[in-house]
């Protein structure tokens, strides 16, 4: 304490006072926070404007890979979007007389008025410049960013109105470099109307989607065509219009070169349609294709879970029991617990256990949209019980079958056993006079055609997977034109060389031509 007192006295005598003595201790962190906020704001704006260069390269080289890079970065940037930041970028990009400025200003609201132009100009990197003639790709990209911001802000009504105007405007554009951006615009357009209360908004957009699908098909816009088909199927299934969804699948061919995630969604919706139409074998194939093509990452966990839930119910309706390994996957273990209990009830063939499981998890089944399909499993539970009894007993009376399966009468048991024999569920004979069922001896499955059919299905799947991998290979755009140009230049040089040799313009020092 004495030492500090002496130092303070010396400071007062000399006049060397600490310049920070009169500054509040809390003001320094506030300045640092403000500078940090301005730096983050400037970094976000520069990241957004950096995508303009990629879009320009996509247009110049006619290469969609640059546009896909921009769309991939959108998922990262959307977490940092704010209305003032988007307003700053839009003001810096568009001239005051641009027609898109009014629609963007109405979507962002008061952010245009509260933004300071001088601060915005200081925050944006000096390399960025105002585009007098804004590219349509840059224009649509900024509209897409506003769409994403409105969706994350849960402003569904404003977003639906903004998206409707944007879709009508895009419907009149015909640029192949806009295909990937247009597909995203239509996706968020359908999402906004789906989030609105009631089903009237979802039904109202069908006319626009069908018109856009027709236009995209005529223009051979693969991305937009595949996206709109998936959106229409989702729209029809949300309102239970199964016949219209089936007509769409019949008349609209899904592009084979569509993206993998779109093909997975299309297979899932097609599997749901076939399951409702009682075509369980086709539904099983489509759902297996959807689960295999879906990305096995945390972002796509919801889709993978929904596809596996529906596939489990379809397998049970087909009379098969799903593999236990499906329920042990980390991504599926907890969501599939109700379906594991359902599989156990169907496997043992007891109606009481099946009914208790359905009543216990009815809310979960209704939320997943599989409740109506699960109610069809009652007959499968009875068939499973009959199959197990045919294996356990060489001969059993219809009365015992009626008691074990909790059926109403022996006539019902006789009818069910006869139908199981006709469908090939069991190998047995039914004696109507004495009232019993006698099982046949089990045959060797390897002596039948079943192994050959299974082997054929596996080979077919492997060949299909190989063809899809070959089709999905990417090659450099316009590479053949570059090769033709180089070949043409080589031929021109050869012609000039021949003319010089024939005219005698070349000297002897130019080279030895002993072979001529």
Descriptive account of the structure:
The C terminus is likely disordered. Among the domains are: 205 residues, no CATH class; 75 residues, Arc Repressor Mutant, subunit A (Orthogonal Bundle). It is globular. It is an all-alpha fold and 516 residues long. The chain has 26 helices and 3 strands. Strand 2 and strand 3 form a beta hairpin. A 3-stranded antiparallel β-sheet has the order 1-3-2. It starts with a helix and ends in a 13-residue tail after the last helix. Keywords: Proteasome. Belongs to the proteasome subunit S3 family. GO terms for molecular function: enzyme regulator activity. One of its GO terms (cellular component) is proteasome regulatory particle, lid subcomplex. InterPro entries: CSN3 (IPR050756), PCI_dom (IPR000717), PSMD3_C (IPR013586), TPR_PSMD3_N (IPR057985), WH_DNA-bd_sf (IPR036390).
Summarize the structure.
Helix content is 69%, strand content 2%. It is mainly α and 516 residues long.
Please report the distance between the alpha carbons of the first and last residues. 106 Å
- Runs with pLDDT <50, length 5+? 17-28, 117-132, 510-516
Structural class determined from secondary elements: mainly alpha
Shape category: globular
The profile of the biggest β sheet is:
3 strands, antiparallel
Strand order of the largest sheet: 1-3-2
Strand portion:
under 5%
Classify the helix fraction into a percent range: 55-70%
Domain PCI: 264-444
Family: Belongs to the proteasome subunit S3 family.
Pfam family, one: TPR_PSMD3_N
Protein name: 26S proteasome non-ATPase regulatory subunit
């Amino acid at each position: 304490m004495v030492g500090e007192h002496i130092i303070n006295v010396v400071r007062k005598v000399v006049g060397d006072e600490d310049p920070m003595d009169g500054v509040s201790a809390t003001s320094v962190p506030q300045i640092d926070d403000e500078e940090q906020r301005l730096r983050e704001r400037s970094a976000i704006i520069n990241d957004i404007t950096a995508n303009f260069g990629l879009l320009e390269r996509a247009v110049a080289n006619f290469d969609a890979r640059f546009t896909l890079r921009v769309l991939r970065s959108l998922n990262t940037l959307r977490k940092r979007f704010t209305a003032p930041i988007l307003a700053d970028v839009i003001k810096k990009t568009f001239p005051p007389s641009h027609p898109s400025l009014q629609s963007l200003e109405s979507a962002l609201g008061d952010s245009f008025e509260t933004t300071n132009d001088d601060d915005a100009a200081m925050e944006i990197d000096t390399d960025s410049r105002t585009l007098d003639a804004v590219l349509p790709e840059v224009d649509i990209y900024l509209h897409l960013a506003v769409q994403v911001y409105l969706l994350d802000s849960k402003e569904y009504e404003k977003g639906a109105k903004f998206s409707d105007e944007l879709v009508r405007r895009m419907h009149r554009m015909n640029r192949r470099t806009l295909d990937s951006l247009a597909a995203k615009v239509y996706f968020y357009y359908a999402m906004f109307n789906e989030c609105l209360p009631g089903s009237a908004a979802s039904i109202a957009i069908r006319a626009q989607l069908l018109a856009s699908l027709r236009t995209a098909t005529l223009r051979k816009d693969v991305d937009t065509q595949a996206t709109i088909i998936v959106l229409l199927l989702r729209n029809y299934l949300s309102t239970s219009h199964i016949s219209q969804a089936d007509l769409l699948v019949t008349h609209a061919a899904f592009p084979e070169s569509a993206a993998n995630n779109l093909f997975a969604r299309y297979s899932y919706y097609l599997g749901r349609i076939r399951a409702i139409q009682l075509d369980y074998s086709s539904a099983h194939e489509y759902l297996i294709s959807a689960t295999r093509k879906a990305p096995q990452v945390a972002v796509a966990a919801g889709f993978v879970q929904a596809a596996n839930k529906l596939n489990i119910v379809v397998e049970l309706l087909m009379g098969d029991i799903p593999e236990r390994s499906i329920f042990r996957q980390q991504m599926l273990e907890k969501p599939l617990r109700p379906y594991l209990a359902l599989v156990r009830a169907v496997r043992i063939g007891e109606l009481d256990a099946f009914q208790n499981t359905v009543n216990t998890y009815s809310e979960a089944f209704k939320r997943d949209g599989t409740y109506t399909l699960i109610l069809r499993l009652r007959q499968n539970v009875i068939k499973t019980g009959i199959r197990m009894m045919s294996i356990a007993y060489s001969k059993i009376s219809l009365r015992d079958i009626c008691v074990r399966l909790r059926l109403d009468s022996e006539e019902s048991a006789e009818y069910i056993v006869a139908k199981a024999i006709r469908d090939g569920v069991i190998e047995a004979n039914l004696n109507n006079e004495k009232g019993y069922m006698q099982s046949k001896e089990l045959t060797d499955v390897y002596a039948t055609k079943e192994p050959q059919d299974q082997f054929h299905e596996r080979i077919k799947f492997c060949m299909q997977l190989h063809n899809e991998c070959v089709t999905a290979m990417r090659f450099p755009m316009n590479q053949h034109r570059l090769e033709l140009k180089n070949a043409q230049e080589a031929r021109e040089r050869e012609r000039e060389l021949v003319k010089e040799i024939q005219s005698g313009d070349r000297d002897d020092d130019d080279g030895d031509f002993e072979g001529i």
